[in-house]
Amino acid sequence: MFGAKGSGNTFSGVTLGELRKIDTSQNISSETGLIGYKAGKQVYGFRDNGTAFIGGSGSGRIYFDGTKGIIASSSWDNGTLEDNESGSKWDLASGAFEL
């Protein structure tokens, strides 16, 4: 872990390796890779499962799925768009572009 502790007990920097997170319901999840933070929020990540993202959550994040050849906006993170969402997805393998 390289970085600095900021005001309000936040972290800005980079972690490398396994990252374990506990949510407000005490559920534990983990991911492995290179994850960047700014003021305590994830702003980029390159994971060992072939996926990556750039941008803050809810603020124009772009997802990359190297295992499927897909580049998508954050609204597509679950694979489909909900009725109230907008965004785009580009499937590099097929050439399909969805809005």
What does it look like?
The protein has 99 residues and is mainly beta. It folds into 2 domains: 1-36, no CATH class; 50-99, no CATH class. It is built from no helices and 9 strands. It has strands at residues 2-5, 11-22, 28-38, 41-47, 51-54, 62-65, 70-73, 89-91, 97-98. The protein has a 9-stranded antiparallel β-sheet with strand order 1-2-3-4-5-6-7-8-9, with no helix packed on it. The chain is elongated, with a radius of gyration of 15 Å. The mean pLDDT is 85.
Core attributes:
99 residues, mainly beta, 9 strands
Topology summary:
Blueprint: E1 2-5, E2 11-22, E3 28-38, E4 41-47, E5 51-54, E6 62-65, E7 70-73, E8 89-91, E9 97-98
Antiparallel strand pairs: 1-2, 2-3, 3-4, 4-5, 5-6, 6-7, 7-8, 8-9
Give a concise summary.
This protein is an all-beta fold. It has strands at 2-5, 11-22, 28-38, 41-47, 51-54, 62-65, 70-73, 89-91, 97-98. Strands 1-2-3-4-5-6-7-8-9 form a nine-stranded antiparallel sheet, with no helix packed on it.
Based on secondary structure, the structural category is: mainly beta
The ordered string of helix (H) and strand (E) elements is EEEEEEEEE
Portion of residues within helices: under 10%
Low-confidence stretches: none
Tell me the quaternary state.
single chain
Please tell me what the overall shape is. Answer: elongated
Termini gap: 38 Å
- Beta-strand share of residues: over 45%
Largest sheet: number of strands, sense, barrel closure? 9 strands, antiparallel
Radius of gyration: 15 Å
| Strand order in space, largest sheet | 1-2-3-4-5-6-7-8-9
Average pLDDT across residues? 85
Work out the number of β strands.
Answer: 9
Domains counted in the coordinates: how many?
Answer: 2
Number of helix segments? Answer: 0
